[in-house]
Amino acid sequence: MGIEFFTRLPLHGEAEFLAGDPRNRGDWARVSGVENTGATSNYQVGDDFTYIDYLAQVARAAEINGFAGALMVNAPTGEEPWTVCSLLARETKRLNFVTAFQPYHFSPYNAVQSAATYQRATGNRLVWNIINGGSEVIQRQVGDATPHDDRYIRATEFLDVVKGYWYNESFHYQGKYYSAEGGGLKYPLNKAELPIICTAGSSEAAREFGAKHADYYLMRAEKPSEIATLIADVRKRAAKYGRDNIKFGLSIDTIARRSEQEALAEAQRYLDEAAEKQRLHASAAHAGLRSARVLSFEKEYADKDGSKNVNDFFIHPNVWSGFGYIGIPPGVALVGSYQQIVERIKEYNSIGIDLFFLAGYPHLEEAYRLGEHVLPHFKNQRQALQRIPEESKYRIA
């Protein structure tokens, strides 16, 4: 089966060391009496070289090393993804940018018009990752009190209206959250392609939303058998909507090194640092009172409370959950030699994963490791992202 590789841009600072460490790149650390030493860590507005310039370095490195795109994670504490996408599109030639946003952030027509402009300017290099909030606490902090399942009803309406606007010059709609009375994309904006749509979330509401609207349903890494079960469930749901060709993506970090021993030593370094800073506790995985499903291996964290043994956190060969244990999302990493990383990617690909989001720390250096030693093994399988054909469903005769 086909396969494609994207990476991730660190919109909230690097994490070669634990969050808040003044040695990290970017100005997210603020430790009283300690000088920041990482690149752009002392950035001031107006400086010649900014953190966005560092992100541009990572984006160019990703493109040079053969990644097809980059994910922009949306968090209230980080840079705004759509803005960064727009800035970096002019710094790259072919790299696709995945902007994560919530329907709460935009009106459907604003999203349509903005995306059409972006697509025209970049040659259709925008991918959408529609998210609906993983933490009830954070949702309220940013002003959204809509209950969890209702957010997915809103998101379903949002994309119904977006697709209606995109494929019609005069679209009408009446829903619980949105209405339209004759608006739509007109020439020449309608020459642009609707962004490929990704979404994630493992709740019943999230699965149903993804089954109806996503071209790619994205997952957090867990044991391959559990991934296979989730894929089967979403495929069954998608078939109800006549969408038999939905595809699947996996977000997983990497600690890829020349030998397994080198990789294990780097993973161990994170646990040792967490122990030094007294962050070895199971609650790190659930910080922020997130509403996402607790994965099976996360339920086992309590039994390992205080452990700093790197081997305690392998849930499958080379699949390490230690990042989640110490609170570094997305929580799971492929840890091993380059050849071991290749084998694990092949295993996940064999059960239905078409798109991999691979990144490590620092992002710049790991892009080169992966691009030089892992991605070349898949050059004959690479397949560009594909949209599920459904324009006819939304075009009004």
Question: What does this entry show, briefly?
Answer:
The protein is an alpha/beta fold. The protein has a single domain, classed as TIM Barrel, CATH 3.20.20.30. It contains 13 helices and 13 strands.
Give a verbal description of the structure.
Residues 44-354 form the Luciferase-like domain. One of its GO terms (molecular function) is alkanesulfonate monooxygenase activity. This is Luciferase-like domain-containing protein. With 397 residues, the protein is an alpha/beta fold. It has a single domain, classed as TIM Barrel (Alpha-Beta Barrel), CATH 3.20.20.30. Helix content is 36%, strand content 17%. The strands form 2 sheets. It has an 8-stranded parallel beta barrel with strand order 1-2-3-4-7-8-9-13, surrounded by 8 helices. A two-stranded antiparallel sheet has the order 5-6. α1 links the parallel β1 (4-9) and β2 (69-72). It is globular, with a radius of gyration of 21 Å.
| Sheet with most strands | 8 strands, parallel, barrel
Question: Numbering strands along the chain, what is their spatial order in the largest sheet?
Answer: 1-2-3-4-7-8-9-13
Number of helices: 13
The low-confidence parts are 283-289
- Our measurement of the CA-to-CA distance between the termini, rounded to an integer number of angstroms, reads 36 Å
* Helix content, binned percent: 25-40%
Q: Identify the CATH architecture.
A: Alpha-Beta Barrel
Quaternary state of the chains: single chain
Approximate shape: globular
